[in-house]
């Protein structure tokens, strides 16, 4: 974040320097005021878009998975995969399809997860997984996306 701010400040300083240089060279007087205003507006718009994109990409990255918590809870690799699908909002059938396992196996993994996380339902497991950073958020693709975790 600090690096982005410094780059943004540096580009603004460079733009101010260029404008002063143009004024000193009398080039500003030969250009119309509307053209100069349009060029400055385009420059600031481009700089704003660049900064916005840089900040959104950084925001999408999200926190990494807490491997120490996974080890201390004794979660297996498959249980973590089931938990990732659960956090994404998948039903038992959807989780089974995504992981190429049976729905009964999903139920077994969920029972083990509930026990290890100390919860008794899906929503509580998702909340606990997020609280402990058991699954990395990665790139979501859509910031406005709301996932609903139903009981199934």
UniProtKB/TrEMBL annotation:
Spans traversing the lipid bilayer: 36-56
The keyword Transcription regulation appears for this protein: yes
UniProt keyword annotations, A-Z: DNA-binding, Membrane, Transcription, Transcription regulation, Transmembrane, Transmembrane helix
Domain of life, per lineage: Bacteria
Domain HTH luxR-type: 68-133
PROSITE patterns reported in the protein's UniProt record: HTH_LUXR_1, HTH_LUXR_2
UniProt key word Amino-acid biosynthesis: no
CDD domains registered for this protein in UniProt: LuxR_C_like (cd06170)
PANTHER family: DNA-BINDING TRANSCRIPTIONAL ACTIVATOR DEVR_DOSR
Protein name as it appears in the record: LuxR C-terminal-related transcriptional regulator
Organism expressing this protein natively: Sphingomicrobium clamense
């Amino acid at each position: 974040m600090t690096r982005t701010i410094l780059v943004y400040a540096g580009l603004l300083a460079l733009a101010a320097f260029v404008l002063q240089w143009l004024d000193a060279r009398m080039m500003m007087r030969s250009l119309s005021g509307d053209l100069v205003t349009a060029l400055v507006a385009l420059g600031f718009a481009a700089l704003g878009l660049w900064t916005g994109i840089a900040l959104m990409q950084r925001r999408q990255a999200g926190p990494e998975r807490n491997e120490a918590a996974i080890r201390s809870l004794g979660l297996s690799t498959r249980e973590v995969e089931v938990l990732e699908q659960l956090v994404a909002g998948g039903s038992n059938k959807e989780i089974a399809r995504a992981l190429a396992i049976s729905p009964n196996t999903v139920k077994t993994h969920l029972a083990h997860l509930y026990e290890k996380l100390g919860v008794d339902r899906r929503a509580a497991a998702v909340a606990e997984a997020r609280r402990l950073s058991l699954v990395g958020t990665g790139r979501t693709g859509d910031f406005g996306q709301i996932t609903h975790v139903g009981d199934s």
